[in-house]
Specification:
This protein is of the alpha+beta class. The protein contains 8 helices and 11 strands. Helix 1 packs antiparallel against helix 2 and helix 2 runs antiparallel to helix 3.
Length: 267
Amino acid sequence: MPGWTNRPLLAFVCFSFCLLIAAQSQIPEKQANSTADGVALYERGDTDGAIKQLSEAVKNSKDDARAWHYLGLAQLKAGNLKAAREAFGKATAVRNRDITAQFFGRQDREWRDEQLTNLKALLRDQIESQTRTLETISEQQELAKTRIALERSRGLADCVDQSSKVIDGHTQLRWADMKIVKARVLSKPLPIYPSSALVSPLRRDVILRAIFMADGSVKYIEAVNSPDRALVEESIRVAKLVRFTPQMFCGHPISTPVQLEYFFMRS
């Protein structure tokens, strides 16, 4: 609406990657045995028994990614697609946290021998959970986003393999050798407070999730909260105009999930 850009309104936008740094999960021995029992039931073909055992295991430890993964497999085998998708999602979320802790929560940024073996196993397990998740999804947009997440995991795993070296009989990986570069915002247009927005309260915040694609586009934008439809639509409009250089793994562009926060204020 003409004139709105000249009114004493403030609109701020900030960008933050939706990654949470946390310590890698530590599973107690008793819990590990409980999970192993559930896995054994699944591998013997006792699907119902596996579901029961693994459901109890994840109830006792919500951070047991292996238990969540095999619970997903058991639910998938039983034809319970929604429950399988939820279980695989839990496994993926736990491993996302652990992967983030490995790459962004370490001071030395170097892995040797067993550390590197464990890191590769973590990435391999993540790829397996994401791959099996695809079997539970029919909605096309959700399927596309899951495939993007899978390609991101594969890209990171490939980069780890390419950057690993054998030095003096020891396998080694250094952060610097991976050439990981964060996505960098080049321009971030400010939103305009729309005339159709509700007049109160004084400040309204809009939070969006999106993906900074490897080709430089912004896709799969969705609102986390919706304080006002007009504000959400305006936020989505300017989010599509963001220009950035994509994140890089070993010199290759990779799609990255982000969170966009828009703050609207009027006086």
